[in-house]
Description:
The protein is α/β, with parallel strands linked by helices. The chain has 2 domains: 221 residues, Spore Coat Polysaccharide Biosynthesis Protein SpsA, Chain A, CATH 3.90.550.10; 160 residues, CATH 3.30.1330.50. 30% of the residues lie in helices and 30% in strands. The chain contains 12 helices and 19 strands. The longest helix has 14 residues. The protein is elongated. The mean pLDDT is 92.
Amino acid sequence: MNGFCAIITAAGSGLRLGGERPKQFAPLGAGQVVLHHSIKVFLQHPQLKKLVCVLPDTSDDFLKYIPQDPRIAVCGGADTRAASVKAGVDFLNHSQHEGIVFIHDAARPFVSLDLINRILKKMEQHKSVCPVIPVRDTLRRNDQDILQDTLDRTQMVQIQTPQAFMLDDILKAYQNVPDYKSYTDESSLMSAAGFDVVSILGDAKNFKITYPEDLELARAVVSSAKMIKTGFGYDVHAFSHDEAGPVMLCGVPIPHPHRLKGHSDADVALHAICDAIFGVLGDGDIGTHFPPSDPQWKNAASQIFVEYARQKLEEKNARINHLDVTIICEEPKITPHREQMIEKISELLKLPPSSVGLKATTSEKLGFTGRGEGIVAQAVITVECEL
């Protein structure tokens, strides 16, 4: 298989949801809107060639929601969902793409890689595949609030997206079905055009956001879909006998005859905190981001590094749960400055003081710290992030 293209329809008005903006642009938590979640999953697939986002229009008001990725293209939608999908299909056709195309509703933010892969597997033997969910409840006709005949639910399924087709086939369906705009999904259109559409078991978690209660449920799902990561940071700096103090620890100047050696202000505790954060991110260490060979960091305040590391976490929609710092030295004495140091760390990381632990110990006169030659700092951080 040579990969696939995908169309995400995000051009609707979402009138049934209410609110100030269409449902696909409603906040879903962690700084992201509904549309982001569907885009994110498709971009994670290694076989994706092109992803077309069909927007209400291509103004900056909507383009701001689209992440930067060379595989993403955008086009404007139309007055109906069916016409908007056709706009995306025509875009791919004019861009000379071919093969499999997935069509997905932006209002289904919990599409999974597993479902995409199962559909791709089914497409190896078939040319039109649609995920469905069996109907669990009794179905009856309702005529002006009076219940009428009961339907056979064993013959009924709920239709989901993404649906997959061959691009050439869906282009033929548009040509052969003049009233294509009257169809509410592409599987119905393809059946009307004479194509066999094969069903595959969908995913109950892949529900569609239509009403306000759906949005609340989706937000609850996002808030619960978290994992905890732990990062560890370690740093050591020696005392400089050529430069007078104070010593910088946790962003606080501590009186001492000598400062610590380092290209920046040598705040050994803040450096350990930075490395703990970079460890959570799997993103190198403090030297990777702030090389000591770079003159711009000469005598720089280490709180700059911490704020940068915190921003990197925020970009990943991650939140610090707790930080624990241990400072190992014979001198200076840490206890008199402990509360001020916690306050400074809390400020830099935007944490309540109760989420910051700070301890100090000695090495019982053993080793270089025991001889008063330098200071060691260790930091352990726990972070809540998206799965």
